[in-house]
Each structure stands twice: as C-alpha cells, then as structure tokens.
Design goal:
homodimer, alpha/beta, seven-stranded parallel sheet, two-stranded parallel sheet, globular
Amino acid sequence: MNIKTVLITGCAGFIGSNLVDYILSTTDWKVRGIDNFSTGRSEFLFQALQNSRFTLLKQDLKEKYLIIDEFEGVDCVFHLAANADVRNINEDTNVDLRENTLVTHNVLECMRSKNVKKIVFSSTGSVYGEAKVIPTPEDCPFPRQTSLYGASKLACEGLIAAYSELFGIQAWIFRFVSILGERYTHGHVYDFYKQLIKDPTSLRVLGDGNQKKSYLYIGDCVRAIMDAVEHFKDTVNVINLGTNEYCCVNDSILWIKEFLEVNPKIVFTGGNKGWVGDNPFIYLNTDLIRSSGWVPSLTIRDSIIKTLSYLQSNKWVLR
Amino acid sequence: MNIKTVLITGCAGFIGSNLVDYILSTTDWKVRGIDNFSTGRSEFLFQALQNSRFTLLKQDLKEKYLIIDEFEGVDCVFHLAANADVRNINEDTNVDLRENTLVTHNVLECMRSKNVKKIVFSSTGSVYGEAKVIPTPEDCPFPRQTSLYGASKLACEGLIAAYSELFGIQAWIFRFVSILGERYTHGHVYDFYKQLIKDPTSLRVLGDGNQKKSYLYIGDCVRAIMDAVEHFKDTVNVINLGTNEYCCVNDSILWIKEFLEVNPKIVFTGGNKGWVGDNPFIYLNTDLIRSSGWVPSLTIRDSIIKTLSYLQSNKWVLR
C-alpha cells in the first residue's frame, strides 16, 4: 500500500480513536482526523494530539453539499463517523438515515471531488437482519433488514459499491460484531457496569438474558482492519469481523459479577429481544478475515474483563 | 384484502398511471393519486380523472419532514414515485438518494403518522448488481451494488423492511425487470423509436448491441402486482417480476426495423455496457410470482410491438 496520508472520520469515537492511535504507532502515515464531537470525546485523542503527524478538524459531516479541503492529498479515507446507538429507534426514525446514509454520501462526494481513491468503511453484522445461515458468511442469502441502523449501513455499503463501480474507488467494507475494550462507551457491558457501581445489589437486564452475543476486542478489531487493507486487493472487499465464539448475556453477567465481586438481584424485563429491532443473534463466519493470517488475541470473556478494568480506571467516561 | 382506499405515489408516471387505471377498472376501491409532475404526465390520468373514485394531489414528496393529510384513512400505499432514469448518474450523484431513498423515508413517516399498515413498493432487478446466479432468485447471494439507482432502491427496501419490523407494516416489494407498453417514455425502445422517426436511415446504439435485456409488458406488470398482493401474506414479501425469456438489444432492433419497415445503418458506440453502471444482464427467476397463478400474457417481442404501436398513435409523448 503506497499510503502517506489518511483521513479518519469519527476520529474521536470508540473505534476511530483506537484506529488513530494504532495507525500512528504502527505506520509513518500522516493522519487527519475529523469529528463533530457529538458523541466522540477529545480525551480519546489525548495521545494523538501530542503526535506531530496528527491533525484534527472539528466538522459536522451532515452539512449538505459539503466539500472539505482536508480530503485533498489523502490516499485513503477511514470512514467511521456514524450514529453509534443502535437502539435509539422509536424516537427519531431519521437519525440513521441522516447520520449514516447521508453522511456517507457526503464523504464519497468529498472523495470524488478531491480524487481520493480508497475507502475503509465500518459497516455492521446488523445488515444480515435475522440471518438464515449462522455463522453468517459475507455471501449469505440476500437478507431482510430488521433495524433502521442496519438498513442505513446497508444503504452506505450500496453507495460505496456504486461509487466504486462508477468512479474507480477501492473499498474495504467491514461488517462488525459488537466491539469491546478501551474507550467503549455504549452497549450492555457499559450499561451493566454503570448500573452496578450505582447500586451493586440490583441489575436490570433487557430481555431474558438468553440473547446470544458475539464480541470482538477493539485491539483485535483495528489490527484486523489494517491487516485486511494490506491483504485483500479486490475493488470492493466485504469482510466480516468477529471471533469464533459467542456468549449469552447471562454468561457475561456471571463474568461481570465475578470480576466486580458483586451479587446483584437480576431483574429481567422479559421477551427474547433486548429491544424492538434487536437481533437475537449476530454470529459471523470469519473465515475470510482469518485467511489473511489474522487471529483475535482475546476471548470474549477476556475482552469483557479488559473493558471493565478500563471503565474502573477511567470513571470519567461514565459521565 | 379488506381495502377501501389506496394511495398511489407517482400516479402520473408510466407504471403509476397504468396501475391507477387497472385498480379503478377491477376494484371498487377509492384511489388517491400523488405526483409532482416532474416526469409524470397529466395526460396519463385522462381516464382516471373522469372517475369519481379518483382524486389527485399535486405534491412533491421530497419536502423534509412532510406529513400529508391524504394518508389519513388509507388502507394501502402503492409507492411508485421515483427517479426513473437509471442512466442519469455522472451529472448528479445525489438524485437517486434524494428522489428514491429520502422520498421513501418520507412516505414511511406519513404512513406511520397516519397509521397506514400496508405498502407496495416498486424496486428493481438492479439491486442484484452483477448477479452471480442467473436467472436470479429473490434469495440469491448477498449482492454488490453497481449503480446509484440500484443502491437507492436497495436502501428503500431496507427502510421498508425495518419499518415493517418496528411498526407492524406489511410490505410487498417488487423487483422489476424493465417494463414496456402503453405510456412507456424512457429506455432503449423509446430512444430507438425517437431516433428512427427523426432519421430512418441511421440508428445509434449504446454498447455493442449484445447486451441481454429482459422485459415485461406493463399490463402483465400491474396484474402481477395486484395478484401478488392478494396471494402473498407474509409480513415482508419480496417478489421478482419478469418473464421467462430475454432478448439482445440486436434482437429488438430487428423487430423494430420489421415493424417500422425501416432499414437504418446501425452505429454501435462500442463496449459491452450501454453506460457505466449499466448491468449487462438482469434476468430474474420468476418462480415465486408464478406460484400465485400469474403468467405473463405477452412475449418480449409482442410487448415491443405493442409499445411501438402506442408511440405511433401517441406521438405527443415524444415531446
């Protein structure tokens, strides 16, 4: 890869900021970060901002017909800016369309305008809806969407592939399971931890606790992204990211109880879904990414414990 | 189907106006039509406007956060409003996103607001991109998009399926091949006819003429839609519409020459695609729609001749 300068949208987010740090520490690339700081946190860029190869632009990518000068001279865009809360659905059905689909179109237009020819995109295993094949491979039967979040990410994938066809852009599209680890600030492990430090005697659990979940450690995630971009050379590369294991929410509760040395009363809200549109089971076939030589370093249990340790040492992220 | 009132968006378009007439003549439903008349033509509603069960609203569905009172009391929306020109890509990359994806979201929001629980949607065989399985079934391997038009229709399908999951909406999503017949006003048969009445001695053909094309007659299309809505009762019904045959552009040129009794010099622009992003071959497996009992009444050749006869008797549509 003949890369000198990359641009990372959502650079102050969970995955974005970890990717910034990983790229700065493993390459000699210049990194331009963009974030609107709606959910991203400047504290996550503490290390990066001390590096002279990193520059930061505070910019909202939702602006219509936006062409950003910072795309000039960029060799590859890592487009991670997105609405990250999968569950915020019934209040505002427009949020995923606005923050994912339209923002991705803006990013592609910036790339086209400034002649940027590579994009890395963070999609989601949610695009498989209620998958008929589990573990789900990238070329599973044409899925049906079950969430506005998944639908918006699918729309982004479609836009990227079409731009690739029309304008000669090379793309790496990653379909993630949920990610855990340092700077993780949403999702059920975070919610459970927050509840338990407030009241260690009681834990409210959405659904019945039997929802199966697959997780990947953030360090393994950013390493997989970089390995895949180096390894896969198709025009459009669609790659699942996850581990070969899964757990139940109830398993994770056990591990969390053990680690925090608490024994709360568990109150289940009932039903087999955490929320309407929640997919009971996203478990991805990861043969493709493993064919690059990549293997995850942490089990789900270890990545949950790593996450809890991080939250314990960084209580400010709970604010 | 317990239906009394339906609403048809894009009611003055090619498919929309034919559906309006078909519904008025085969049911006792009240039909509310919406069109912004950007490409729709009021002449196509000549018959409908004489029927007391038909009402027309001139309205652009692109307006943001639009809630339209006409959705009140509607039992089923037939959402056909769309950017119809698949080829208008390099000039404005935003048009499909704006006129298909965002408009479909607006329509779904109107439905949610007014408690409409059924939607029929005109998608496209273009969502299969360069299909790996031909004839392509509805559950083919997860496709890659090759056009902004297909990507936008896929985004619409995703939105509709997600709304179905979240808000209890029942959906019929039709993936069409190209449609021919009365009121057809774009596509290669139209272009060829227009060229040949201007100059019968010469015909300019995009590509090399070997592009394979599958077509369906508009009368068979609207009948298939109505039959399918009656027959298929899943929450989200995805249904291919096409015939069991295909032709080459060169075949169609022969039939057109025969029918018009002209013998032009054919000038090929070359290449195996009509335009960048054109799919050389959309040929759909139609076993599912045929399982409802529906069969097409016209061959491709007959539907091309029917189209030419219509254009000959209605030269005003060429203006």
